[in-house]
Amino acid sequence: MQRLMWLRTDLRTQDNTALSEAMLSGPTIALYLITPQQWQRHDDAPCKVDFWLRNLAELQRALARLNVPLLIRHCADWSDAPAQLAEVCRTHGIQAVHVNEEYGVNESLRDQQVAAYLRQQDIAWHSHLDQLFFRPGSVLTRSGGYFQVYSQFRKVCYERLHSALPACIAPLRPQAPLAIASDPIPDAVAGFTTPGASLRELWPAGEDAAQQRLQRFAEEQVSEYDRQRDFPAQPGTSQLSAYLAAGVLSPRQCLHAALSANQGEFDSGNPGAVTWINELLWREFYKHILVGYPRVSRHRAFRLETEALRWRDAPQELAAWQEGRTGLPLIDAAMRQLQATGWMHNRLRMVVAMFLTKNLLIDWREGERFFMRQLIDGDLAANNGGWQWSASTGTDAAPYFRIFNPISQSQKFDPDGHFIRHWLPELASLNKRDIHDPAALGGLFAPSGYPRPIVDLSRSRERALSAFKDLNARE
Ligand code: FAD
């Protein structure tokens, strides 16, 4: 009786709950569905799709070492998933399908439909907790609701982690070879352009590459994380988000690496490791929010009253922001980092998101969508959470009157201008005082070829404050 492991955002062999459960219960084959129209509807970035394909190729080799063949099926979107899975099950005499849980509304609906369809044909469906430490719905307030405040959520998570630490799964042993050939992995999928070699080199595929990055970070950097993580010119953060989002790495592997760098402590000891574990819990928090408040999966504001906000329709300003031509160096440098690498430093994600939603008063959904179309680590829960935090429309969000000033953020977090000079060579000759605000140099002295700011920071700040105050007045 064969088992099917349906791979999605869990592209690894180590510490993979569903793969392990499938292999422990019988001979297993793996399946991946290529669904370009679904990916387009979800705004998945071409560099992310390319990262999935490159990881699939590595995964196929790792699975081959376990004698698990990897089948590839192509369909337009998830509406075809029930029929595709049923056909694979029929062809290979599969009795049970194993998956790791995913939490967006479309993902949940897809799984319900596939499970129901397979059950009609007497094929069992086993869904496992794997992406998170705790199953959504199991970390609740005393009155049984989902937490809306991160610090309260984190406190309960710590209590749970102290009493039962989620363990990594023991390495799998190869199964007896099956007479089933693996399918070729495509190099590209129509509709998604292949990124250039320089972007690909930044994000090498495969579990070994991910593990090396994790080990290096845990051994050499995590102890400095609390001091370095806000400075985009420093390699102060792990740059593991793409691997976590695609499931090339599990959160348990990350947690255990941080714990072993911190003598087994979560909430005491080295402040760098503790701060980093807190970030893993932010990731957890936003996925729980996705399940507890499914409206955020449908692009609705978490704080419904903010849906009445009068966002501006300003396509030229939106384009200037997207293309890194706002005339504010830190914003432009950050947007160019995003275009060139598929990734942006967390501090800068907050700064550019606040600038778009507050100074330009453009709807956060525009920013959310644009980020998703660019990011190699694009993840609905974290991206939506980050955008709604920055726009003050979300759970435990930044208060609307705390608006980052991109010039003072630049002075504080890129004090020598190294990050700006790297991404904006046209400003490279400016000294570390002038580089944050070249417009202040005045007409003749301002660098040629660099735009003037598209917006007055203090007037636009007032405009945002009054838009949010109007909202409060209407409540
Ligand atoms: P590290 O600082 O090393 O953190 C370790 C891991 O913790 C990350 O890899 C990530 O998985 C998780 N993490 C860290 N910070 C957060 C956070 N604030 N929320 C949720 N998880 C977090 N993260 C994504 O993974 N995908 C996204 O699409 C995404 N979009 C964002 C959009 C905005 C507007 C903002 C403000 C933040 C967004 N983040 C997103 C969160 C954060 O910016 C990235 O996770 C982080 O920059 C990734 O870099 P790193 O791996 O070096 O992180």
From TrEMBL:
The protein's name: Deoxyribodipyrimidine photo-lyase
Superkingdom classification of source: Bacteria
Xref: InterPro entries: Crypto/Photolyase_FAD-like_sf (IPR036134), Crypto/Photolyase_N_sf (IPR036155), Cryptochr/Photolyase_FAD-bd (IPR005101), Cryptochrome/DNA_photolyase_1 (IPR002081), DNA_photolyase_1_CS_C (IPR018394), DNA_photolyase_N (IPR006050), Rossmann-like_a/b/a_fold (IPR014729)
Gene behind the chain: phrB
Family: Belongs to the DNA photolyase family. Belongs to the DNA photolyase class-1 family.
NCBIfam families registered for this protein in UniProt: PRK10674.1 (NF007955)
Gene Ontology MF annotations: deoxyribodipyrimidine photo-lyase activity
Cofactor: (6R)-5,10-methylene-5,6,7,8-tetrahydrofolate; FAD
Lineage of producing organism: Bacteria, Pseudomonadati, Pseudomonadota, Gammaproteobacteria, Pseudomonadales
